[in-house]
Q: What sequence folds into this?
């Protein structure tokens, strides 16, 4: 019926041209640049082609701190956020009053500027005049230098990050919960199965894939944290020159923009790319296995 | 029987307590931002902090608005977000139509490559794009902040899904009537999918409004700054005057909150798609 012609490319042209220039080309360049020693991106000079950038990258204490911080971030933020979101989404999905209002409120952080809200968190966490220390003092606990004591840098980042990530997780969990067949629940009600059992026997298994998705997305996002750190520490990655809250992307950006170490920044971004690719593959794996099983059954 | 009822009531109460506690935690920065923005310079540094301003000072907003070129930042942000949104809508509609309706050689490969780019972290592209912008002589211009964002794989994908669900019969009927593809697209396809297109428009506008790193990278002068970058610079400039910083944060956040409250139906729809995309 339809005849093949190249007309489709005319419609695709604007998107293809922009993607070639601003996505495909820089992607290839990032791999190439990562092997140029002492590369200067502005005038294109370099002193050799080798793996010096990668060696410097992994030898850098800041990059190692960034990897360690990302691990801490993943270990705290992702599970905390998933558990709280799961709880809230379940409550939102039960018969409650003002459901629409609650939903509207809970999703609000998803649309608001990380920078602006980060600036507000910076104020809440202020060591002298901040709200959080005010509350702690009220309960007789001494003030904590949330943003001035480097031991608390990651704790501050985690508080902000959990707050920020709840909206997205609640939203996807709620959508998934609403997709579970109500018949399952009515059957459980007929059998007068206890609530907690319904939760663990019906809700959790049905939610498995979406919970896994939330975990993987949480991990991938952990690699890319930047704005949060920038806002909390006013452009730095920690207090008083310490990079105690540095993240992978913060490190890459710092090397590129402030230190003009383009090659090392490129090597860092290649590592970032590989990490993200691995986790994306892991996330796609179950669907692939399922598809293969189904194909085998046919 | 009676104790069972008591348990049910208790469960109900706990449910609301948890929901309200969670909502308070979510709203905390917003509420604290607004409350702080209305306090006086003396009250804002009181220990312990006061909850409600003793005297409500709306003048902080006027002061913040004029203390830095915020009117200019605001205009820049509106322009960049507005033009980017119109542009990306146009390119996404065109490419979605190609993927959903037209047959062309290499379509499957192009589409797969297209979707594969979703995996690429944008941070990886920064260095070269920065150099490209410099070489084009676009540093410190609006086009530097707009053009790289005029193609969006996710929006194209979203619209392709919607366009694909429009029955073939309509397209064939239009062909019989000698209706051109372009006319069919804008007279039939676009109006039929106005909800999806509105969703994409809002998501794009919000994304662009909140963007930070790229505008910071490609602008130098004060005149070209957008609100988010203007805000962090103002934070350094304003020193300890937190009431002004909070007022400035409000200027950045409130327009989007208003958009969200009015158009949340579309945004939530779009968010649901972001969620199921994987």
A:
């Amino acid at each position: 019926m339809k005849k093949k012609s190249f007309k489709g490319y005319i419609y695709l042209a604007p998107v293809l041209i922009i993607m070639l220039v601003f996505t495909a080309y820089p992607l290839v360049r990032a791999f190439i640049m990562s092997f140029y020693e002492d590369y200067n991106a502005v005038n294109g000079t370099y002193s050799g082609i080798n793996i010096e950038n990668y060696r410097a990258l992994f030898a850098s204490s800041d990059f190692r701190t960034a990897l360690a911080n990302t691990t801490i971030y993943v270990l705290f933020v992702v599970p905390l956020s998933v558990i709280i979101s799961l709880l809230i989404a379940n409550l939102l999905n039960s018969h409650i009053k003002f459901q629409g209002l609650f939903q509207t409120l809970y999703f609000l952080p998803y649309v608001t500027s990380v920078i602006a809200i980060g600036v507000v968190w910076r104020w809440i966490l202020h060591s002298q005049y901040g709200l959080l220390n005010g509350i702690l003092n009220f309960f007789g606990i001494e003030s904590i230098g949330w943003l001035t004591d480097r031991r608390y840098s990651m704790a501050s980042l985690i508080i902000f990050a959990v707050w920020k990530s709840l909206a997205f997780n609640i939203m996807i969990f709620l959508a998934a919960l609403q997709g579970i067949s109500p018949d399952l629940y009515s059957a459980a009600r007929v059998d007068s199965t206890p609530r907690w059992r319904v939760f663990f026997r019906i809700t959790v298994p049905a939610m498995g894939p979406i919970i896994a998705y939330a975990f993987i997305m949480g991990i991938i996002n952990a690699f890319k944290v930047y704005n949060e750190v920038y806002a909390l520490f006013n452009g730095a990655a920690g207090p008083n020159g310490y990079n105690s809250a540095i993240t992978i992307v913060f490190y890459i950006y710092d090397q590129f923009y402030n230190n003009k170490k383009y090659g090392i920044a490129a090597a860092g971004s290649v590592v970032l790319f590989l990490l993200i690719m691995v986790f994306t593959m892991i996330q796609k794996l179950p669907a692939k296995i399922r598809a293969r099983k189904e194909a085998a059954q046919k | 029987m009676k104790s069972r009822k008591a348990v049910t009531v208790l469960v109900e109460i706990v449910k609301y307590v948890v929901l309200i506690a969670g909502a308070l935690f979510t709203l905390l920065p917003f509420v604290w931002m607004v409350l702080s923005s209305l306090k006086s310079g003396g009250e804002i540094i009181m220990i312990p902090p006061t909850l409600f301003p003793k005297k409500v000072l709306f003048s902080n907003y006027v002061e913040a608005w004029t203390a830095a070129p915020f009117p200019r930042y605001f205009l820049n942000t509106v322009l960049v977000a507005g033009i980017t949104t119109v542009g990306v809508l146009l390119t996404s509609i065109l490419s979605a139509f190609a993927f959903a309706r037209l047959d062309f050689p290499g379509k499957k490969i192009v589409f797969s490559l297209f979707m594969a780019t979703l995996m690429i972290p944008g941070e990886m592209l920064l260095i070269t794009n920065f150099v490209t912008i410099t070489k084009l002589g676009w540093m410190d211009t609006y086009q530097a902040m707009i053009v790289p964002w005029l193609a969006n794989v996710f929006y194209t994908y979203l619209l392709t899904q919607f366009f694909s669900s429009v029955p073939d019969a309509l397209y064939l009927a239009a062909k019989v009537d000698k209706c051109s593809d372009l006319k069919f697209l804008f007279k039939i396809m676009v109006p039929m999918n106005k909800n999806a297109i509105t969703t994409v428009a809002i998501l794009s506008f919000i994304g662009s409004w909140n963007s930070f790193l790229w505008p910071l990278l490609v602008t130098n002068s004060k005149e070209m700054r957008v609100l988010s970058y203007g805000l962090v610079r103002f934070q350094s400039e304003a020193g300890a005057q937190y009431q002004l910083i909070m007022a400035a944060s409000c200027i950045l956040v409130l327009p989007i909150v208003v958009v969200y409250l009015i158009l949340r139906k579309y945004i939530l729809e779009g968010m649901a798609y972001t969620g199921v995309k994987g």
Q: What stands out?
A: The longest strand of chain A covers residues 36-37.
